[in-house]
Structures are given as C-alpha cells and as structure tokens.
Design a protein that fits this description.
- By secondary structure, the chain is mainly β.
- Helix content is 12%, strand content 35%.
- The chain has a 5-stranded mixed beta sheet.
- It is globular and about 35 Å long.
- 25% of the residues are buried.
- The N terminus is likely disordered.
Length: 130
C-alpha cells in the first residue's frame, strides 16, 4: 500500500510541476507526413485559436478542430480526474490536472492526431492546420 501511495504522490508531484510522461519520444511529424509537429506545450490557456474541453464521462468537446497556421489549441480539463494530451510522432504534454489547461501552438499546416493516454478509446481527435 505504501508503494502505491508513493507512486501516486510522484505522479501528482510531476503533474503539478508540469512534468511530462517519461515515454515521450520528442518531436516528429504528425504521423501523416504533413507538417512539423510542435515541440512544446504551455500550461497557459491561449487566446484565439481553438478550445477543446475534456468533459465527463471521458469525452472531448469538440474532438476535432481546424485552425490556421500560427494559432494554438487549448485543452481544458473539466472532468473529475487527470488526463493527458499526446500526439502521434512524440509530443507529450503530460498530465492535465482537474481545472487546468494546456496549449500547443501549430506553425506548420498538416493533420495532427492526439490522444489521452489514460482513456485512448474515448478521448482522441485531430487538429487540422491550414
């Protein structure tokens, strides 16, 4: 039981400090060969661009968005548990805690698939950049 508490405490500490998932592969393409995947996530909500809400019970509203190059997408966790935002090709924004947001700016046109590694069967979508 103590081991489980220690692991949980480490995960919460890493998330609170903006830590990312250790199996992140770094930057790459979008998986579809279009565009260069961004290399950084911000824990600040972006103005403009698109907003995606993580909502209960494990869904995204909306899951798919279209933006212009140079704009950002902000994911806000409106659920009762932490979630993640991870892109095919390697960019991993780590844990998004309850009530918190993460933003990614997209400078290169393309189609970028993302997933919540905690519940990938329910929470995934695509950012299309024109």
């Amino acid at each position: 039981m103590l081991a489980g508490l220690a692991v949980g405490s480490i995960l919460l500490f890493a998330a609170a400090c903006g830590g990312t998932n250790p199996d992140s592969n770094g930057p790459g393409d979008s998986g579809g060969g279009q565009g260069q995947l961004p290399t950084a996530c911000s824990d600040q909500a972006a103005t403009g661009g698109a907003q995606i809400s993580m909502v209960s019970p494990h869904s995204l509203d909306p899951a798919n968005v279209t933006i212009n190059a140079g704009e950002s997408v902000t994911w806000t966790n409106n659920t009762t548990s932490p979630h993640t935002v991870s892109f095919d090709g390697g960019l991993d924004c780590g844990y998004v805690l309850i009530g918190k947001s993460v933003s990614v700016q997209f400078d290169s046109p393309g189609s970028y698939h993302y997933v919540d590694k905690i519940v990938p069967q329910y929470m995934s979508g695509t950012v299309t950049v024109q």
